[in-house]
């Protein structure tokens, strides 16, 4: 065991209990949605880990450690499935949780039962002996399987988020308020946390004879408690508009093997030159398809085949060209670079800067400076 630290215990309790409260608020948040249930479970399971550490050390100080072995709260096998199904729900609002999906939580049931057995109690107590008993290896195996479960589900969830991000660019020209990137950070943090935690623990056990435990044990769980509170708070604040349904678009075809559709290219260029729909920051695939009097799926396919770009990149390329045209005629003592970007259809400074650099290989400031030197 580690030496008790009232300050760190207090911090862990504050954030851990707040995370538990947030999990309840998320579960009953209106409107009631399946995604909220899984987010609540995710926050709940992580909060349990923090409260679990505080409880075991408090009971240890009171000479009641044996009591804790009967009320172990850690539930590693619930974290991965909760994260996975939450990701599925927010990336596909039409997702339905079926009976067969309960199988993902079957290891959680086994884990709960395991913590109620003498195998666990003997194995966990044996970790503090010079020679590990067989039951301790059983306990360590269960812990590592839990970590592997979290890593596998985290990888799958990240894959789903990346694909969702790409599909957003097939539909929208402004995705700042639609992206789910906020969820990628805690997924990476959580996955990395458990790997680093177990690696450091094993190195400390076999190389330093657990002499470094005081330096990393509690600080790590303080970080976990704060991260858990953050994801619960951030998830609770997510608004309804952040959850959108994206229909399946035709699979992309390599443009090199498809003959260019000159009629479509001509129609699109004429529309963009005459009406400049890209000046509308909210322009999406459906709106453009309506202006072209075509079906959205066909427009998406034609854009990919003829421009080797998705809808998002194509529209923003028109906006960059618009900015360059405006920049040649405007007096920058009266108009700012960002002001011209907004007039060109951009609605985000970061999107404008990133897109401009990607297309021109220059920052907007470098481009303006280069433009002034020519004049």
UniProtKB/TrEMBL annotation:
It comes from the Bacteria. The keyword Transcription regulation applies. SMART domains: HTH_ARAC. Residues 269-370 form the HTH araC/xylS-type domain. The chain crosses the membrane at residues 6-28, 35-55, 67-87, 99-117, 137-162, 182-200, 215-237. InterPro entries: Homeodomain-like_sf, HTH_AraC. Coiled coil: none annotated. Keywords: DNA-binding, Membrane, Transcription, Transcription regulation, Transmembrane, Transmembrane helix. This is Helix-turn-helix domain-containing protein. It comes from Aquimarina rubra.
